[in-house]
Design brief:
The chain has 329 residues and is of the alpha+beta class. It contains 10 helices and 8 strands. It is 56% helix and 15% strand. It is elongated. The N and C termini lie far apart (178 Å). It comes from Heyndrickxia camelliae.
Length: 329
């Protein structure tokens, strides 16, 4: 095949012909296709990353946010704790107050014990220096108030006077038991005791034979509150009334019949032994009551042996003395 002449291009500049040589590079079309495909593959690989850009509106107000803000550990812990316990705020105050009160009470109790111990030491020292003295506190603890029961009895009255001294002496000179007891701003003369009104009336008839003015009547002494300092005094105050009734019954019966009832005497003996064994007496008034009942019982025993009516009169006199002392309590 014949070789074709190369195409030439002529260039004139300002009328002058200039030589121009153009070399045209010839490339393989297949190679360009391969390069295009490779570039396409690369672009495809890059297309796998999606880029999402925020849409920014014009004239929008940006929101202020703290980025990567981490509060300090102490503040975070305190804040959480406060929020957690905000509902139990009053419970916390109550527990704190209760704890403070408990500590105060405990402290006060300890101080009280210390003071009491010191006071006791001083008291013991005082007792050691005065062995014969009784502490005021101990004496106060021993004294108690008890009720002396009301006492009701039948009695023979010999008259009522403003001043019964002379009439009483006159009655006594006739051999009758006599006592003067002030009642309601008057002085009453009593000359006998019985356990009931019927017996008192019979006794009044016998005493009237001595040429005296007599009245049988019921007499009641009200309940009284007295101060005792021992268990013996308390026991006596509770039992003395019942013993008096037994003694009055037998004394009036012996005066009227000139005899003794063995059953009544046995009852008196049992009651008397309970009272006679009491020794711890500090009250002179209670001692006088006990002495009067002992005297009456002894005169009844003497009458049982001797049948001497003077013993019955003496027994009656002891009972009248008991009533006088009882009224003065």
């Amino acid at each position: 095949m014949d070789k074709q002449p190369a195409n030439k291009i002529k260039i004139k500049i300002n009328g002058d012909e200039r030589p121009f040589k153009e070399e045209v590079a010839i490339h393989k079309w297949n190679a360009n296709e391969a390069e295009t495909a490779a570039a396409t593959e690369k672009v495809s690989e890059d297309d796998q990353f999606e880029w999402v850009l925020p849409e920014v509106e014009e004239n929008s107000i940006p929101e202020f946010k703290k980025i990567y803000y981490e509060p300090s550990p102490e503040k975070t812990k305190t804040g959480k704790l406060f929020k957690k316990n905000s509902g139990s705020h009053y419970l916390t105050i109550f527990i704190s107050a209760a704890t403070a009160i408990s500590i105060g009470i405990l402290f006060g109790f300890i101080m009280l014990k210390v003071i009491a111990h010191q006071t006791e030491g001083v008291s013991q020292k005082s007792i050691g220096n005065n062995s014969g003295a009784i502490p005021t506190g101990a004496a106060a603890e021993q004294k108690k108030n008890v009720n002396l029961p009301a006492l009701s009895t039948s009695i023979i009255q010999g008259g009522v006077y403003d001043d019964a001294t002379e009439p009483a002496n006159e009655i006594k000179s006739k051999g009758l038991p006599t006592v003067v007891i002030p009642l309601e701003s008057k002085q009453y003369v009593f000359i006998g005791v019985a356990d009931n009104l019927a017996a008192a009336k019979q006794l009044a008839v016998e005493q009237k034979k001595q040429d005296v003015q007599v009245y049988a009547k019921q007499l009641t002494f009200p309940e009284k509150k007295i101060e005792v300092s021992s268990q013996d005094e308390k026991t006596f105050a509770e039992q003395t009334g019942s013993l008096f009734q037994l003694l009055a019954r037998e004394a009036s019966n012996a005066y009227l019949t000139s005899s003794m009832n063995s059953d009544n005497l046995s009852k008196i003996e049992r009651q008397y032994k309970q009272v006679a064994g009491l020794k711890n007496f500090k009250s002179n008034e209670l001692k006088k009551l006990l002495t009067a009942q002992k005297e009456c019982y002894q005169h009844l025993l003497s009458f049982q042996k001797s049948r001497d009516k003077n013993e019955i009169i003496s027994a009656q006199q002891a009972l009248l003395s008991f009533l006088k002392q009882y009224s003065e309590l």
